[in-house]
Design brief:
The chain is of the alpha+beta class. About 25% of the residues lie in helices and about 35% in strands. Strands 3, 4, 5, 6, 7, 8, 9, 10, 11 and 12 form a ten-stranded antiparallel beta sheet that branches. Strand 31 and strand 32 form a beta hairpin. Helix 1 packs antiparallel against helix 4, helix 11 runs antiparallel to helix 12 and helix 12 crosses helix 13. It is globular, with a radius of gyration of 29 Å.
Amino acid sequence: MSDRIGAPNRQLKRANKLSSAPIVVCAVIWVGAFAPVTVCAADQPSAATLAKSLREASFDREQTYRVRDLQIRRGDITIYLSEGTLSFIAPVGGHTIGALFSTLGAEAGDAEILVLPPARSERASLASFINAPNLDEHFGSALFLFSDDTAKDVLDQIASRPLHKAPEFIERIPPASAHLLSDVSPQIRLRLLESLLDAHDTAQGFFYTIVAGREHGSFEAMYDPSDFEPVHVGRAAQSQSGEMRYELWTSFRPRRIGAFVPPAPNISSYVIDVTIHPDLALSATAQFRVTAKRGCGRVMRFGLSDRLTLASATVNGRGVETYQRDHDSVAEPTQGAFLLVSDAPFEAGKQYDVEVQYGGSVIRETRDGQYFVDERNFWYPYTVPTLATFDLTFRCPENLRLVSTGELIDEQVAHGVRVVHRRTELAEHLAGFNLGEYTTSTEDRGGYRIDCYANRNAEPATPPLELPRKPLSPVLPDPMPAPEDIPGETARILEDYTRRWGRLPIHSMAVSPIPAYLGQGFPGLIYLSSVSYLREEDRPLQLRNPRMDAFFSEMLLPHEIAHQWWGNVVTVADYRADWLMEALANYSALQYLEKSRGAAAVHAVMEEYRSDLSHEVNGKTIESAGPVDFSMRLETNAGTLARHVIVYEKGTWILHMLRERLGSDAFLQLQTRLLHDFAAKPISNDEFRAAAAAFLPARDSDKGLETFFETWVYGTGIPTVRMDRRGRDYSIDVSGVDEDFTVDVPLRCSTKDGRHETRRVRVTSGSTPVSMPGSLSACQLPSTTEFLYTP
């Protein structure tokens, strides 16, 4: 008995012996799962060596055990290893990084994983995939990977009970499991490699598992306390079209964890020199200043498109090792990542000058001779969040015109090459560029220089977003703005927005075409669908209807210009608040439409939005795919259509109802407050809720807007509402929503002396009796243009 228990204790003694070895002090790393050890820079393994060791990782015969009644708890993930065999992976770079559990050969073998999401929306999300609000899955095998104290925790449990080594298990492992990390995503492999190079506190390390579930098949669960939402559960799956995509079942912050502290931007300036060759290949040198973060050790991580490949890098003029993430076949080639690895630790809080050389293909020529920038967001190294100045120099063939974020410093053409130099005057969150064989027109108005770039051929090259269609009613009256007046219309929109919210911290605005049915707004640079450059009668037949006319001619440009304030001045703290920027931009465009075309035009658009939300696909309404705060998760889980309808259209409805609740003047004051208070820091949903609540009328019963946000931002459902009157009393019936659906219905009431007032009544699903005071003569439900419900 004592001999069996002694093995883990001997491992502890070995780790302690290593930690006291007489080595010259250079850096502190963690050896095994237990003890820190100081080593010289010369002893540091390279990223390539560690990556090779990870690829060749094997099981440790001496650390393979028959186990019973072990527990692993991470956040709201609980794993019970009831009976089976646990084999640790042989140390990599001195670290125990994982283990394999299997019930193979165990008569009563079993294991179980429990995940209990705390929020109703996350329970609903989980149920949409597994038909249950909580995950309770038994499994026969699982791979665990970790950079936290999992190995120590599990070995402590093993050491506390009779020990049964099982080295013979290694021979029984199926050949398919020989390559341990082959089924692990490149993102996790890079995260694991980074953890072998950094100096993180093990309390902040991650835990990851791939589980072979008995009911739901293979899936993965992750706990990373450094993330905004530490718990993630999901899997890669094949869509109906045959493409691989990632299903994110649930993502949340556990119940017993402190508030998330967003990281501060650590890049302060960029100097980027880009050459675009005649074949449209891009080569670039990016110089930027980085402040090293606590615990980064000798590694720094940056994002960069998977379409681009690193050539070399230096830190403070000295060459450093680079390691670029493998491309993930599940995702589109876009948000890749790479590591810079030094031979000595980076000093936390110290600034370092980094230079990275890279290249690849992020631009392509369409069949009709236009140019499409595939990688508009991640074409330079970045960290999240970013707030930095940009000094940008572009070299391209002289037949092309190039425009980017920043004020124009210089533009010259010599020897067949055009050189464009632009620079931002203030720190920005991102930078973009566009190019093409453009004609240009310029207008100076209201303190802004407006440059409009247009292609000779503006035929779009990508298919439209397939929204449920029916003509707007009433049809928007003619005339719409002429395409050739885009500079003038841009100036009018800028003047209107500037009067409302104040001047932008930029002097120039460039509008440039993109051969697609979309738009995008960067600081001082707008991508505008090439359809918007066409006269309505010249557009493709499938786009010639009142709804598409309104979108391309009247909504898209003011929406993208509004992003100069909502998205570039005010930014979001996390993905949950992404809807807010899109909804603010879209509602701003509607307010501009209201000013130029009247309330009827706005009502027509809002009715279309209501219809889209209620449109059924496969027996479910589009709106039921998830709440607005799921943002990009909606596209991953339910498709582009669901994300567009919910984030943009329901988000617009939410702001419209909030404006009705606050009043137009108070809503404008709220926007002004947001621009003042959140120009220097990103905003979260909760901060937006608190800011809006400060402008509520004094008698509003939902003082903190908690019910409003729980219903419309964090929940789903469009209620069917009917009201019956019995004398002075009323009965309000709510149907078509979940049992716990709660909403404040704004009844429009008349007093006996002829005045009108709004009285908000809180109702739930089912029938709610309502008594009105004797001073009111009559009440009725709100109009469908001011409240999101089905009459």
